Amino acid sequence: MELVQIGQRPGLPEVPQAPLHAKTLKITMVTPPLSHEEMLNYDPGMIMVNPPLGMAYIAGYVREKGYRVELIDAFAEFITEEQTIQRILDSKCDILAVTSVTVSHPRMEKICQTIKEKMSIPIVIGGPHFSAMPERTLQSNAFDFGVSGEAEETFCDLLQFVEGKKIPEEIQGLAYKKNGQVMRNPPRPLIKDIDAIPFPARDLLPALTAYRPSTKYKRWPVTTMMSSRGCPFKCIFCDKSSFGDTFRGRSAKNVVDEMEMLNKGHGIREINFYDDNFLFDMKRVEAICDEILSRGLDMTWSCEGRVHSITLDLAKKMKRAGCWQISFGIESGSQRVLNFIKKGITLQQVRDAVTICNKAGIEAKGYFQIGLPTDNEESIQDTIVFAKSLPLSTASFNITVPYPGAPLYQYAAQYGDFDEGAFEGYMVATDKPVFVTKGLTAEYLVGKQKQAYKEFYMRPRYILHRITKIRSVWDLQRNMKGFLQYFKSFVSRASGS
Fold first, then answer.
1. Are residues 161 and 261 in the same domain?
2. Who wins on pLDDT, 429 or 84?
3. What distance in Å separates the CA atoms of residue 444 and residue 450, rounded to the nearest whole number?
4. Lowest mean pLDDT among 216-230, 340-354, 417-431
5. b/e for 454-492, b at 16 or more Cβ within 10 A?
6. The pTM is what?
7. pLDDT tens, position by position, 27-65
8. Which of 32, 37, 49, 266 has the fewest CB atoms nearer than 10 Å to its CB?
9. Do 225 and 174 have their domain in common?
């Protein structure tokens, strides 16, 4: 395709633009592949791969506007960096759109630099890493534009710019380069009516059965959904740069319409709601349950929520509507630490929520962190003891990571040693913590993490309880998979610690 240089128009970025004719732009969207090291050590039982809903939402949105879209999920397809580059070249796209999280950003930047050498096309980056670090990311010559926050409308406006119908200065949420400087436009207001956003373009992804979820499911095939965006709470470790701090929930009808489409159109039997806080609007949750029950939809599902957003009556209705597990961000067994990280919950609320779930027949999972700011040996031990005191079905113990975009990222160095450039340390499953709380060591945090898993999962009482909960072949397989995952990750590594 013949290209013209936008730089010929005074004051605009020097990137290629499609000529103004009737040809419909083709967009290729790409997720980052695994690194070579990750591929060498790859174990399907250890790596969770979910559909890239954020990118699939954007693909569905721009396709509805008439654009041609190809989506390459390099991570799920298990292809190398070189294969990813070749797929992009073969797509003969007019514009390349990529996403990355912090740990995968270096390899995505490398891929885009290679594409720049071989194709004269605009390259756009979005996703959590860019939204959290826009200026720093766009300083690289690998990218021409960046889209912050909710990207559907901003990306569509950018496509109109490439077509010559808009100028970059008027596109809210866009970052670009002008005279060698990174320019950032004002943020775009959040989308109020998220029912109006088309469902994710899952048909552009590999078959949903190709994805490898965690052990957190009862029935197969299983996939993910988002029924809401935004979270108003102030936890210092959370990055809310993509969806903001205003909760916006889809209507019950819209949510269950998508569930039914996945069930009847794709054979999906279970949904893992990936919302930051599914339980925030309890009346909406009840309406979703009523809609599921009124349609007689036979699907199981799980969700995440805060401990003060559940009642026994609601939990019982959720159970009848197919919910089998709720995951709670508990974080710490120290009230002092909870207060410092602005979690906004009490240890008693945690006990009450887990008890409610057990009474309703719903499994409760707890997320905990080791090495939060102001954590010490006593508070970390309190967290392990507290986790064991709760009737949880499962628990995860992650070493704290100050993610770009989270308030903690800005002042982590005040509370410990923070190596913000060690991107490999941004993985939740790592033996190289990127943040080490004052008074502790990296070796100590990794050791306490292993101790937490061992003490929680290897209790005879816990093992017996899990055995009594087995009701089907699926339950047996899920429990065996979870045990093997624990054994490989922590027991077999203990000899090297």
1. no
2. 84
3. 10
4. 417-431
5. eebbeeeebeeebeeeeeeeeeeebbeebeeebeeebee
6. 0.86
7. 999 998 876 555 445 554 556 788 999 999 999 999 999
8. 37
9. no
Question: Are 171 and 236 within one domain?
Answer: no
Place of tokens 């990280």: 341
Q: Examine the domain organization and report whether 336 and 484 are in the same domain.
A: yes
Amino acid at site 293: L
CB burial of 376-412 (b: ≥16 within 10 Å; e: otherwise) equals: eeebbebbbebbbebebbbbbbbbbbbbbbbbbbeeb
The residue assigned the tokens 């009124």 is 294
Read off the pLDDT of residues 468-496 as tens digits, 9 standing for 90 and up: 766 666 566 656 666 655 555 554 444 44
- Domain of residue 315, residue span: 213-494
For residue range 224-265, list pLDDT tens digits in order: 999 999 999 989 998 877 787 889 999 999 999 999 999 999
Within 10 A of 286 (CB to CB), how many other CB atoms are there?
A: 17
Over range 389-411, report the average pLDDT. 90
Per-residue DSSP letter, 435: E
C-alpha–C-alpha distance, residues 452 and 458, integer Å: 10
Q: What is the mean pLDDT of residues 310-335?
A: 97
Whether 85 and 33 map to the same domain: the answer is yes
Is 57 part of a structural domain of the chain?
yes
Are 311 and 259 contained in the same domain?
yes
Task: Examine residue 33 and state whether it is found in any structural domain, yes or no.
Answer: yes
Query: Number of H helices and number of E strands within the chain?
Result: 19, 19
Boundary residue ending a domain (140, 165, 184): 184
Number of domains in the chain: 2
Mean pLDDT computed over 186-212 = 91
Considering the domain boundaries, does residue 192 fall inside one? Answer: no
Residue 201 lies in a domain: no
In 3D space, the residue among 62, 69, 72, 64 whose CA is nearest the CA of residue 32 turns out to be 72
Query: Is 368 found in the same domain as 252?
Result: yes
